[in-house]
Amino acid sequence: MLVNDKAVLVEDFKMDKISTKDLNQKLKSLNVDKLRHVVLVSENATVFKSSANLKNVTTLKAHSLNVETLVRADVLLVENESMKLLTERVLGSN
């Protein structure tokens, strides 16, 4: 469960093309590729399409993240842009 300090802020996945293999390599570099429930929060369409064939990865936009998904996650990966949106969502925009 995510309650064990398993949240990671990722600068950006910087994917030039849709590639499940490339995304899986990035997950391996973060040592999360073998976990059962990886939640990736990204606004990047290339990341969404690249993760479609990874059964252990759930990719969501910041506005779609919910408590149920967080509870099930072994690790939460959040891109910088998505973190800003989540912060605005939680704290409200000024």
Automatic annotation (TrEMBL):
The keyword Ribosomal protein belongs to this UniProt entry's keyword annotation: yes
UniProt GO MF annotations: structural constituent of ribosome
GO cellular component terms given for this protein: ribonucleoprotein complex; ribosome
SUPFAM superfamilies: Ribosomal protein L4
GO biological process: one example: translation
Keywords: Ribonucleoprotein, Ribosomal protein
Keyword hit for Transmembrane helix: no
InterPro entries in UniProt: Ribosomal_uL4, Ribosomal_uL4_dom_sf
Highest taxon, organism lineage: Bacteria
Family assignment from sequence similarity: Belongs to the universal ribosomal protein uL4 family.
Protein name from the UniProt record: 50S ribosomal protein L4
Classification lineage: Bacteria, Bacillati, Mycoplasmatota, Mycoplasmoidales, Metamycoplasmataceae
